[in-house]
Amino acid sequence: MKEKPKAVIILSGGVDSTTLLYDLKDKDYYDLYPIIFDYGQKHHREIEAAVSTLRKLKIPPKIANLRLLGELAPSALTRDSIAVPEGHYEEESMKQTVVPNRNMVFLSLAISYAIGLKAEIVFYGAHCGDHCTYPDTRLEFVKAMQEVARLCDWNRMQIDAPYLLMDKAEIIKRGLELKVDYSKTVTCYCGREKACGKCGSCSERLQAFAKNKVIDPIEYDSK
To answer: So what's the pLDDT on residue 100?
Structure first.
């Protein structure tokens, strides 16, 4: 039997990367190597969610300690002194949730991991719903990182963000087709046992489930 090519996937434990993981596993073309980054995020429960999903899918987890990023890059996601803002992603206050250059750091390390594995591709779950707030999920950014990946090693290396032109509702629609267990995902930035239902991430998630006429399986403090 021919050996499958290897692929690294950046897994956060949120809706987008978890759906992408199921999607790639369903296609069954790659031997998948998920990598999870612990960067000192307040919503540390997303790491537990990612590990839980991998156990369910019988894929071994790999967690990379990247807490230095949280120390260097001030954000509402990493600093107790900065409150997580409430409201929709369109609001200016949501820029406080940007962790400066996070995806470039994640992708750089994922590329290193992929090169070490002799993998040919790195996947990550960026999507167009993030573009207004997060510079490192824009098409221009992805194209630039794809060129960097091509140049950084002697062997062929790719970066792919298959959901880049989809919004959250479309991603969840795909996930429902794949029977993704969304109860094992964490989206809220506040890091409490129950999702707040008020931050930008919760608001977008709730709207996306509503568009699909499906009840979100996680618990909320309020909606």
So the answer is: 75
pTM given for the model: 0.92
Determine the 3-state secondary structure of 95 from DSSP.
Answer: helix
pLDDT of 92 above 60: no
- Judged by DSSP in three states, 9 sits in strand
Contacts of 206-214 spanning 24+ positions with Cβ under 8 A: 207/168, 207/169, 208/15, 208/167, 208/168, 208/169, 208/171, 208/172, 209/172, 211/169, 211/172, 212/169, 212/172, 212/173, 212/176, 214/172, 214/176
Please spell the DSSP secondary structure of 120-141, one letter per residue: SEEE----GGGTTT-GGGSHHH
Question: Which numeric CATH code is attached to 6-186?
Answer: 3.40.50.620
Alpha carbon distance, N-terminus to C-terminus of the chain: 51
